[in-house]
Amino acid sequence: MLLFSNVDFAYDAHPIFFNLSFELGQGEFNFLIGKSGAGKSTLLQMVYMNILPQAGIVQFAEYNSKNIKPRDLPHLRRKLGIIFQDFKLFRDRNIYENLSFVLEVTNTPRREIKKKVNNALTDVDLFHRRYSMPDELSGGEKQRVAIARAIINDPLLILADEPTGNLDPETTNEILEILMKIYNRGTGILFATHNYEIVKRYNNYKIIKLEDGKAVKSVFK
């Protein structure tokens, strides 16, 4: 489903990746770890091709960084769900409107929008807050809205960029339980984190560690 093959990338002549290679199968749960500045967020941007490699290839589903065209990007990104640490919700729209916007831009029929939004909010246990404004929600609730937005198009893969970084331990556990429920339904997840305690707790899943510009095997005991 996702392949990085001999990828090189540098910012202002500062190397980030050198000969980076790894592969994710469909429906897998993978942790992405590494020190601050190791390139976790850059790697995730390469998956949705906001950043392209300077050498090598990134392949996601049928899309390839070597030959992707700008008109293909919206189609690629509909196969992905993205969860950010800072939620990225529209503060001037209620929760229902935040989610429906994702579908409106793809010309989804109104009846289908209502069904998908309600189902996604039910999945994260927030149907009762659908008419609330983002500023009325706790941090954990905002992140659950972000998860609902990420799953609303039934993506092949969810990219989670430090989704629990600003949350307390109890709320972190709630978010992880929701993501595991989604994963168990067959959706792949690439979970970037610097919280090694989470990784140790779920050490039966594959771990991709970024170190010296490459992906290295890592096992926590």
Using brief descriptors, characterize the structure shown.
single chain, 221 residues, alpha/beta, six-stranded mixed beta sheet, four-stranded antiparallel beta sheet, 7 helices, 33% helix, globular
Task: Please tell me about this protein's structure.
- Helices cover 33% and strands 27% of the residues.
- It is built from 7 helices and 10 strands.
- β1 and β2 form a beta hairpin.
Produce a short descriptive summary.
With about 220 residues, the protein is an alpha/beta fold.
What is this structure's SSE topology?
Layout: E1 2-11, E2 14-24, E3 29-33, H1 40-47, E4 55-60, E5 63-64, H2 73-77, E6 80-84, H3 95-104, H4 110-123, H5 139-151, E7 157-161, H6 169-184, E8 188-192, H7 196-201, E9 206-211, E10 214-217
Parallel strand pairs: 3-8, 3-9, 6-7, 7-8
Antiparallel strand pairs: 1-2, 1-4, 4-5, 9-10
Helix pairs in contact: 3-4, 4-5, 5-6
- Give me the count of strands: 10
Residue stretches low in confidence (pLDDT < 50, at least 5 long) are none
Bulk shape: globular
User: N-to-C terminal Cα separation, in Å?
Assistant: 28 Å
Q: Report helical residue fraction.
A: 25-40%
Widest beta sheet: strand line-up: 6-7-8-3-9-10
Q: Tell me the Rg in angstroms.
A: 17 Å
Mean pLDDT over all positions: 94
Major sheet attributes: 6 strands, mixed
SSE order in H/E notation? EEEHEEHEHHHEHEHEE
Strand proportion: 25-35%
Q: Structural class of the secondary structure composition?
A: alpha/beta
- How many alpha or pi helices? 7
